Amino acid sequence: MPEILGKTFKKAREAKQLSIEETSEKTRIPKKIIKAIEEDRLCEIPSVFYARGFVRTYSKFLGCEGEKAVKEYLAGSEKKKEEPRLLLDNEQVPGDKVLKYQRKAAIALLAIFGIWMLGLGILQVKKFVSNSASKYKAHVADKKEQAVKEQAVKIVPPREAAKEKVQDAAKAVPEKTEGIELEISARASTLIEVVSDDDLLFKGILKKGSSDTWRAKKEINLEIGNAGGVTLKLNGKDLGYAGKRGKKKTIEITKDGIIDKTK
Whole-angstrom Cα distance, residue 49 to residue 147? Predict the structure, then answer.
């Protein structure tokens, strides 16, 4: 090995005003290897292959590839596509610990972020399930409340029983008699009570759009929860609305006419 090889590198390094520590950090070549090269002690490096790799890397960094001493030393080496890692066992290059801790810190942060995202996802799922359950319970409660209201309104005998009584009353009054025939048509759902000759024929809600007819020999007593919600027809004669909308009204209907008994 030419003895001027080490002096060539040292002179070039000092010309760049670089210390051995700074050069080691920039080239990733251990300090003791740099000293061995500059002091022409490359024989201390166990592998010739690595020794040539160190020299090649150091010469490129310092711009000494064209120096005769460098060319002579590298003349017997084969060109490689990749340079070997210029680190020896038990040697750490400045900055290694920092990079190592940075990698560990990055891995830890990624792990924490992953756990946080997982926890957030679980919370969102629990919130969705809780809201769905609350909505379902509210829906069931509304259904039950509606059923209770409808049951409370239907406090009268069954419709079929009422019709049977009407039919019995109709049979008791021969056709073309001078009895009473009352037809009630609902323009709005209205609570009514119909009593024919002291018999309760109907008490309940007459739904909007429906109509029904009741007969009596002497009189019909009628209670209407919303007088403006129904129209009356007596013995085929249209009497119009029973009264004002929203007003409760009590009416007695006889052969002689209609008597308003509202208090």
Answer: 93
